[in-house]
Amino acid sequence: MQRMQRVKLALKNRSGMALPLTILVMTALTAAIAAGFAGAATEYTTNSAERAQNRAYHLAETALEQFMVLRNTKDSLNQKWCTNCATDPVTADSEWTRVKLPGGYADIVSVKVRPAVGNDDAIFFIRSTGVDTSVKLSGGGYSTSAQRTVGIYARWNTASMKVQAAWLSLSGLVKNGTGVISGIDQCGQQPPVAGVMVDSGDLVIKGGSFNPAGNPPVDTSNNFVNLRDKTGIDWASIVGGSIPADIEIPNGSFPPASMFDADTTYWPVIRIHTNNYSLPNHGHGIIIADSNFVVSGSNMWAGIILVGGTLTSNGINTVSGATLTGLNFMIGGTPSMSTVDDDIANGNKNYVYNSCSVSMAAQNLRRYRAMPNSWVDNLASW
């Protein structure tokens, strides 16, 4: 038998393996890097979307707050702030406007959900959709802007100013010379009120040709506390800015007489911070003077005058509407019985009650009033 030979096998390096292995490793690394980039991009997009949503939320909230405060105002060119608002929301089903803000805008829509019932004001739902235009969000093959919608229920406040007298002074009044202060309604719509109303013992009349009229012509029956409570004015809130001003002095300029003559519907709210500011010309609306105020010459005013300090009236002038003075005593201190803090009315005066002028001026007081606990966040947008 022939002896079999043992075959010895030897492994040898096979050519061509390095390249496939390199490709495999590179493919795995590429996939890992691509996954990392995709994850980072997704996280970046998510973070951008969240930030854009926050910006849209702040736009919606800011615009809604501005709408609640500025709806009735006009700019320096006498253009309405709310471009598509009704003259009286109670008579309309809805109204809307667009508020442009840095980084985007918001669309405001107010929808009447219940009309006025008896003495209860109409109820509205006000929706604000904020749109952030500072960053475009990409996804699904298209780009879009982040949106957020908030809302609140509100009542349309129709309350007007309750007039107690043609001229009510918490600080007292000194009347020199002739003239009439009358609480008889010159518009003929409302029952007469007092002509002059001051607290007990704080009226000084010099001369025998002063002719007050009203019901009663002169009312000095109240002490300071009772008179203060009868004003119906929340002076602290007004000083704090609860009635937005169309014009502020000294930052702005008092409207010229020609502006009032050209537009009989222009009844602005004019806030005066300058002490002893003098009425420069005739006009109509609401004057809110923080401290002392002066009416001189033949200047005339129709509407409401609210004076924190004393009112000095010189010359022949007429105020038709309602005048309240010495209101700073409502937020601290009591007037003295001397004439040191009294209003001064010199010359031929005509301060008369006019309910129509008061109503026209008080239209600026008519506004939306938010209902407590009715704020809604993240409403559906459409």
How is this structure best summarized?
By secondary structure, the chain is an alpha/beta fold.
What does this structure look like?
The protein has 382 residues and is an alpha/beta fold. It folds into 2 domains: 52-159, no CATH class; 165-365, no CATH class. The protein has 5 helices and 21 strands. The protein has helices at 18-70, 224-230, 235-239, 257-262, 355-362; strands at 94-101, 104-114, 123-139, 142-157, 165-169, 173-176, 179-182, 194-199, 203-206, 218-222, 247-249, 269-272, 277-278, 283-289, 293-295, 300-307, 311-313, 317-325, 343-345, 349-353, 367-370. The strands form 3 sheets. Strands 5, 7, 8, 10, 11, 12, 14, 16, 18 and 20 form a 10-stranded parallel β-sheet that branches. Strands 9-6-19-17-15-13 form a 6-stranded parallel β-sheet, with no helix packed on it. A 5-stranded antiparallel β-sheet has the order 1-2-3-4-21. The longest helix is centred in the first third of the chain and has 53 residues, at 18-70. The mean pLDDT is 84.
